[in-house]
Amino acid sequence: MRLRVITTGGTIDKVYFDATSEYEIGEPTVPHVFREAGVGLEWVLEPLLRKDSLELDAEDRAVIRRACEEAEESAILITHGTDTMALTAEFLRGIPGKTIVLTGALAPARFRVTDAIFNLGLALGAVQSKPAGVYLAMNGQLFEAGKVRKNRAAARFESLD
């Protein structure tokens, strides 16, 4: 099995420059995390977008969907900003023969205290074990696309069931 990792930006890849929260979306952090974790699975990186998820529009989601549809791999992990991750996941539903797992972080992977590494590990396990479909891996839980929302006040994702 070979995994395709598609990066779209979001907090997981943010780089902050000063105390006033000036930032930009930096290089993908997945290669560093996978290397440090000793990930032995064969994988390929596709840096697709470098945007905050609030800036993603229908055209961007179409680009993400096309990348998933055209990927040779049936296992796809997407890093994405958390604000609109659930919306993108819904947009990706219905792609046959693909297991797609979206994940992100509430704090950048470059921070000492971050959920990024844990979320990437959860997503990596999920993409290898779940059947074809679209899922979100956040806060130690897996959610099906269309059945999850971000609770901004509680800083976590919740099932709509």
From TrEMBL:
Keywords: Hydrolase. Substrate binds at residues 53, 82-83. InterPro entries: Asp/glu_Ase-like_sf (IPR036152), Asparaginase/glutaminase-like (IPR006034), Asparaginase/glutaminase_AS2 (IPR027475), L-asparaginase_N (IPR027474), L-asparaginase_N_sf (IPR037152). It is an enzyme of class 3 (hydrolase). It holds the Pfam family Asparaginase. SUPFAM superfamilies: Glutaminase/Asparaginase. Its EC number is 3.5.1.1. Residues 3-155 form the L-asparaginase N-terminal domain. One of its GO terms (molecular function) is asparaginase activity. The active site is at 11 (o-isoaspartyl threonine intermediate), 82. PANTHER family: 60 KDA LYSOPHOSPHOLIPASE, L-ASPARAGINASE. This is L-asparaginase. It comes from Haloferula luteola.
